[in-house]
Amino acid sequence: MPQNTGKKQIPFSQILVIGFALFAMFFGAGNLIFPVMVGADSGSNVVPVTIGLLLTSVVLPVLGMVVAATESTSEAAQGGVSSRIGKIPGTIFTLVVFLTTGMLYAVPRVATVAYEMSTAPLIAGVDFSAGAKLFCFTIVFFAVTVFFVLTPSAVVDRVGKYLSPALLVFLALLVCVTAFTMPDQGGEPSEKWLNSPFVAGAIEGYNTMDALATFVFGVVIVQSLQKLGANTPGQRVKEMTKVGLVAGVCLALVYIGLTVVGTRQAGMGFKNGAELLAAVSGAAFGSVGQIIFSIITILACLTTAIGLLTAATEYYKKILPGVPFVVLLGVQVFVSVALANLGLNQILAIVGPLMQFVYPLAITVIALALFERMLPFRLDFTYKIAAAVAALLSFMEAGRLAFGTAFSFIDPFLDLLPLAQIQMAWVVPTLIAIVVGFGFDFRMRKSVRK
């Protein structure tokens, strides 16, 4: 489609397609696993926990997409909004985001989750080793993914028109049948959700990785909006807000629905959301329950893998312009297949510490970019000082979470900080850093970004 340089309103039908596509890209492996366990384990605290979960897994990602639409031409060339924290730190952060949301973590995770939750139960009686089954599945899974990614200009259209509506229909079927046919089990919250349930829910939202994904999916969605005529930052922000609201409403409804599903299985002793959802599907739909559950899982994981690999390949193409698109995609698929075959437990083991480190920096950048939109001047020192403080403290918290006693020497320092007991020691020092940086920027008052 030729790019339109004039101002025009994008038809709402196109906004819906792009919004559905964005929802499907966001809604992947973690989005199925985490909300149901929130409902099952949070008991009487389910409401504040769910609100906290929605804050970091819906509101923050939608705001992040709006921020992605504000980037200038020069920022787009340097890797996006994250370049505002400094060229080298921004490049490192962007690379880490694309690697972790791509071939080194999120992409192999969705493939492995798709296998464990959809296919493994159906082929349990097949006379092959578990490793051989997983390997064959990942080959087929990534072959389908590559089919979509090889035509990046059509990804949003295909996902938004076909895959996303199908996913929503099957999810709605599962949630509605479960909610209206099974009683709420209630019960007391588990230890994880007993104290500070709102904050605990917000931290649980880290595991969906959706706020990080805004730095990735922004590449794909902004390009789609530009092709439809949104060529200025103001136009892009306006249209991205509409797209984000469509995706956000879908995400919120699905998360709330899955949380309700979890409350119907409270106290049943499930180890993870995969086991719980499989049991619910069987109870609600009988012998076809596993098939319905498998379809939901495959669609959710496939759409996310397509979005992540499309955006990542576009990004790598920018920093390695001499390497063909197919080669860049092939390397990512090879690495993803290799890591996926390590198994789900090994992949999930690294998620907590990794998100504890990266998420605070992402939150800081998104919040400052939104704040900057309201100012008549540009922020510079504010980004750099706040990002440095957030990165340092979140690294300490992630290290303590991952290595325990090896990082015990920092305990006296971290424990002095407000909110350290709920793994948010970075918040108050970062706010102070923002105030200090803002003082410098207010004195200099550089022109706004174009």
Task: Compile the SSE list and pairings.
Layout: H1 12-26, H2 29-41, H3 46-68, H4 73-78, H5 87-100, H6 106-119, H7 130-149, H8 155-181, H9 191-194, H10 197-206, H11 210-227, H12 233-263, H13 273-285, H14 289-319, H15 325-340, H16 344-348, H17 351-372, H18 381-403, H19 411-415, H20 427-444
Helix pairs in contact: 1-8, 1-11, 1-12, 1-14, 2-3, 2-12, 2-13, 3-10, 3-11, 3-12, 3-17, 6-7, 6-14, 6-15, 7-14, 7-15, 8-12, 8-14, 11-14, 13-14, 14-15, 17-18, 18-20
Q: Describe the main β-sheet briefly.
A: none
- Amino-to-carboxy terminus distance: 26 Å
- Care to count the β-strands? 0
> What is the residue-averaged pLDDT?
84
Order of helices and strands: HHHHHHHHHHHHHHHHHHHH
Q: DSSP strand (E) fraction?
A: under 5%
Number of helices: 20
Helix content: over 70%
Describe the global form.
globular
Low-confidence regions: 1-6
The helix/strand class is mainly alpha
- Gyration radius over CA: 22 Å
Family: Belongs to the branched chain amino acid transporter family.
Keywords: Amino-acid transport, Cell membrane, Membrane, Transmembrane, Transmembrane helix, Transport
Protein name: LIVCS family branched-chain amino acid:cation transporter
Membrane topology: Multi-pass membrane protein
